[in-house]
Design brief:
The complex is a heterodimer of chains A (213) and B (385). Chain A contains nine helices and five strands; from the N terminus they run H-H-H-H-E-H-E-H-E-H-E-H-E-H. By secondary structure, chain A is of the alpha/beta class. Chain A folds into two domains: 5-83, Orthogonal Bundle (Methyltransferase, Methionine Synthase (B12-binding Domains), Chain A, domain 1); 90-209, Rossmann fold, CATH 3.40.50.280. The relative contact order of chain A is 0.11. The radius of gyration of chain B is 39 Å and the shape is elongated. By secondary structure, chain B is of the alpha+beta class. Chain B has three domains: 6-106, PAS domain (Beta-Lactamase); 112-211, Helix Hairpins; 220-368, 2-Layer Sandwich (Heat Shock Protein 90), CATH 3.30.565. In chain B, helix 4 packs antiparallel against helix 5 and helix 6 runs parallel beside helix 7. Chain B has helices spanning 6-17, 36-42, 64-67, 108-175, 181-211, 224-241, 261-278, 309-314, 336-346; strands at 21-25, 31-34, 75-80, 86-96, 99-106, 220-223, 245-251, 256-259, 284-292, 295-301, 350-355, 361-368. Classes of the chains: A alpha/beta (213), B alpha+beta (385). Chain A binds chain B through residues 64, 68, 71-72, 74-75, 78-79, 82-83, 100, 102, 106, 109, 118, 120-125, and chain B through 119-120, 122-124, 126-127, 129-131, 133-134, 136-138, 140-141.
């Protein structure tokens, strides 16, 4: 994992975009992989910002600015992911309706990519109808739904059930910060749904959903 | 210490800590004082100046007198902030004798809606950026596949076309005298078509090599004469058929240059061939080859119809064959100039056209005369590097 998390967090909280990029570039120059940057800098830094916000140590504006800086950096770094060799495996990743936090879902989409999958990321607040239409058109091997805020869980459950009815055999992966304090029995009770605790579990189990042949 | 009376404490808190604009005006509308929030929003510069200076009022609708008159009215006014961005406030004038305190609050609902929209649009933009990058990667992959396919197809076609040319020439040369002249004519037609196909396939192969990024120059030290003479000979042969004279102007033939002679000849063959094809019978094509400082400059001029600005803009695009009239209806793949420019680019040079409609055209190639070769064998005998 790359060094520099404290400095990165400090720059992020200060809104110092250029300094954040310099730290990431130093990590990449020291042969860090994109995965290392995501898991060693972006993810822990954003978790820390979230914790600080929950403890009233930073404002909503600071949290938004930090998110915006990280997402811009992801945009700049992602290009290399798409040029790598890919398998014949496709995932659709989305955040459910009313879910306005999208970085977690985007990280999962990128994790699919660095594991050789094609991943279409539909972004935050994806309307259920639009998601179902996209799945019908794209016919992916897996759909992954990200949820950051626990009070949106009913919407997520509704979407999961709608997908199950329309696409009975499509594996549904669910994860995100909303499940940080525990899994959700109602979601897991839907057949073919897997709730994942984090990126490590996601990557460990990904071969289960890889198409054969 | 006695505690502050409730109302005074409330007013002081509202005035000092709440995002509320509080501006003290005199009877003439001159600003006497600003609270902390107003100083941040409007800047200190306003003290002692007319309040109307910071009001955005394109149509003269701002009524200061209404604000300075006791009333319950709340007015929407747009103010120029310290950052020069206009911002909407809802303002009421509280009149107290000869002074008035303007109290205004921002458009909270509008600002909140704007914030949500901006954040949402930023997320959408970011997501779309990812989709564009992914689509670009897929297009790059498809383009590479296309280039590989093009190269393979061209490579596989080259050998049978070569066999057609060889055997047709053989039959014509060996058995032509015994054949009916009409049948010899058929063989010539086959040969012409096959040679055209070979040129096409050669262009496709060149494009495939260039697009795959595998164009490697074989730089050697040669004289300018060695570069240009084979191309001139070929152009004169083609020009002879149309009574077109191919002449040279200034030629620095003895000067040594470091270039890929074969590839640069290919460029010249293309430019001279185009010049001949676009020249009217009896016309003249001129080649100028000189060394200008550290650059070799080759200029090919014709007396054809020239090119409009629009035609020039499309000239170097793949398959961008422009609508100029070739004087003997010669065929073209539309790739020759693309290949020529790529070869010149690979030399670190440039290829440009100077032309006006109806006044002929001059194609100018400029390449560096040196590519940093170490001192080598005598001129004309240097092997490719």
């Amino acid at each position: 994992m790359p060094d520099g998390l404290p400095a990165y967090l400090d720059a992020l909280l200060g809104g110092r975009r250029v300094e954040c990029m310099a730290i990431v570039e130093r990590a990449l120059a020291a042969n860090a992989r994109l995965r290392d940057v995501y898991l060693g800098l972006f993810q822990p830094a954003l978790y820390s910002v979230g914790d600080l916000w929950e403890r009233n140590r930073v404002t909503v504006a600071t949290e938004h600015l930090a998110t915006s800086i990280v997402e811009t950096q992801m945009s700049l770094l992602e290009a290399g992911l798409f040029d790598a060799p890919h398998k014949n495996a496709t995932a659709v990743v989305a955040c459910s309706a009313n879910e306005h936090h999208q970085i977690g879902g985007r990280m999962i989409a990128d994790a699919f990519e660095w594991n050789g999958w094609h991943a279409d990321f539909l972004g935050a607040n994806t309307p259920e109808d639009a998601l179902l239409a996209y799945l019908a058109d794209r016919t992916p091997n897996v759909v992954a739904l990200s949820l950051s805020v626990a009070f949106n869980i009913d919407r997520l459950l509704h979407t999961v059930e709608a997908i199950r009815i329309r696409f009975p055999s499509l594996p549904i992966l669910v994860g995100g910060q909303a499940f940080r304090w525990g899994r959700c029995a109602a979601v897991e009770a839907v057949p073919g749904v897997t709730v994942l605790a984090g990126l490590d579990e996601f990557e460990r189990r990904l071969p289960e959903w890889e198409p054969h042949g | 210490m006695a505690s502050e009376p409730f109302n005074e404490a409330l007013v002081r808190h509202l005035r000092d800590f709440v995002p509320l604009l509080v501006v003290d005006l005199d009877a003439g509308g001159i600003v006497r004082d600003l609270n902390a929030y107003a100083r941040v929003v409007l800047g200190d510069r306003l003290v002692g100046r007319p309040f109307s200076e910071v009001v955005v009022d394109f149509v003269g609708g701002f009524d200061l007198a209404a604000l300075l008159t006791p009333s319950e009215g709340v007015y929407k006014i747009d103010l120029v902030t310290a950052s020069l961005a206009p911002e909407t406030y809802f303002v009421r004038g509280l009149v107290n004798g000869s002074t008035t305190v303007l109290v205004g609050h921002p458009d909270f609902a509008g600002t909140e809606r704007l914030r949500d929209e901006v954040l949402g649009l930023n997320r959408q933009l970011s997501t779309l950026g990812r989709q564009v990058q992914k689509a670009n990667a897929e297009l790059r992959e498809l383009n590479e596949l296309k280039t590989r396919f093009l190269g393979m197809a061209a490579h596989d076609l080259r050998r049978p076309i070569g066999a057609v040319i060889t055997y047709t020439e053989f039959v014509r040369d060996e058995a032509g005298e015994a054949m009916d002249p009409e049948h010899v004519g058929f063989l010539d037609t086959v040969l012409t078509i096959a040679l055209g196909m070979k040129r096409l396939v050669d262009d496709f192969l060149d494009v495939a090599v260039i697009e795959s990024g595998k164009l490697r120059l074989q730089i050697g030290r040669v004289s300018v004469e060695q570069v240009i003479q084979p191309a001139i000979d070929l152009a004169r042969l083609a020009g002879h058929r149309k009574s077109i004279e191919v002449v040279t102007d200034r030629i620095d033939g003895d000067i040594l240059v470091e270039v890929d002679a074969e590839r640069l000849q290919q460029v010249l063959v293309n430019l001279l061939g185009n010049a001949v094809e676009h020249s009217p019978p009896g016309g003249r094509v001129t080649l100028d080859a000189r060394c200008d400082g550290d650059r070799l400059v080759l200029a090919v001029s014709d007396q054809g119809n020239g090119l409009t600005a629009d035609q020039q803009a499309r000239l170097f695009a793949p398959f961008g064959v422009v609508g100029t009239q070739k004087t003997a209806a010669e065929r073209s793949t539309g790739l020759g100039l693309v290949i020529a420019r790529k070869i010149v680019d690979a030399h670190g040079g440039g290829l440009r056209v100077e032309s006006e409609a109806g006044a002929g055209a001059t194609f100018v190639v400029e390449v560096p005369v040196s590519h940093g070769l170490r001192e080598g064998p005598a001129p004309g005998s240097s092997p490719p590097q």
